[in-house]
Amino acid sequence: MTYDRRPDNMERITTPELANAFIDEQVEAIKEQVGDKKVLLALSGGVDSSVVAALLIKAIGDQLTCVHVNHGLLRKGEPEQVIEVFQNQMNANLVYVDATDRFLDKLAGVDDPEQKRMIIGGEFIEVFAEEARKLEGVEFLAQGTIWPDILESEDGIKAHHNAGGLPEDLNFELVEPVKILFKDEVRMVGDALGLPANMVYRQPFPGPGLGVRCPGAITRDRLEAVRESDAILREEFEKNGLAGKVWQYFTVVPDFRSTGVKDGKRAFEWLVIIRAVNTQDAMTATVEDVPFDVMQHIVDRITHEVEGVNRVLYDFTPKPTGTIEYE
Ligand code: XMP
pTM score, two decimals? Predict the structure, then answer.
């Protein structure tokens, strides 16, 4: 059975049994819609596209081709995990495109936040369209649209970030198997499909990725400092039981340096800002009270392990007045 809208009386998927029933239903619906035709999916490694990939692999196997575009703004280990889970473990047809240089070259010298977002979004579509044109006989495009995306685009809160954007010659029919689900239900389904917990329960991560955490014009050295410090923060939050508790946490490296001292010498280097917030809906947010000893240990690791960083700050600002991200 396929639905255009979430039925008013639909039971919330809160158990593995309900998730499995949904999976069985959707596998049949996908087979019926697609037949023996080919399907393309942009697989970011985020929860929604990963669950859609796993559902389609179950339903139609190698009729699906997943394209994973690495825009160079992903977190440490993300492209590797996508390849490991989908190509190695699930045997998916996966096209991995390392477009890092393309994105970073286009972004060089661009310091306006909205222009940065436009470049990242536009370039993503171009890279994906190029890959789509290389494949023959693809008639369907799968997307991880979820129910709140549809409600928010109807309310005019945000443009539907999935559908649309592709050039006209790429005229695909959409396959959107999780479009009537809320996020918690998508996670339930992902769990039931056997996806790794750190993929299914991962914190929100913006489409423009680390690009918005490297305020101003992105440089490769500062971007690397963001990626490495973020990896340390995530590792320490996991070790200290904060990963499942705090809604979103990350690091930012602003575009200025300060004087410090390292190995008895003056060190004029970047600083890292840590942000860790809790919220229900991302419209307002409060700051997590991270234990001081955990913070001290994180500061010690970042200042000793991340190249070019001599200082760490904690952002105590709730939303409002700060937003969660810096750009
Ligand atoms: P702000 O910074 O507006 O963020 O308080 C609220 C939530 O939205 C995420 N965010 C984005 N997600 N593209 C996305 O897909 C974006 O451009 C973007 N900007 C912010 C942010 O991470 C937070 O969870």
Answer: 0.94
Dist. CA 160–CA 150, nearest whole Å: 7
Q: Which one of 317, 325, 326 would you pick to mutate in the ligand 1 pocket, going by the greatest count of ligand atoms within 8 A of its CB?
A: 325
Residues with CB under 6 A from ligand 1: 117, 204, 206-208, 248, 282, 319, 323-325
Residue of the CA atom closest to atom 9 of ligand 1: 206
CA distance from start to end of the chain: 42
Q: Rounded distance, CA 306 to CA 167, Å? A: 41
Average predicted confidence (pLDDT) for the chain: 96
User: How many other CB atoms sit within 10 Å of the CB of residue 300?
Assistant: 12
**What sign does the dihedral 314-320-325-327 (CA atoms) show?**
negative
Rounded distance between C-alpha atoms, residue 280 and residue 282, angstroms: 6
- pLDDT tens, position by position, 260-311: 999 999 999 999 999 999 999 999 999 999 999 999 999 999 999 999 999 9
Residue 21: how many CB atoms within 10 A of its CB?
Answer: 14
How long, in residues, is the chain? 327
Ligand 1 atom with the shortest distance to the CA of 323: 5
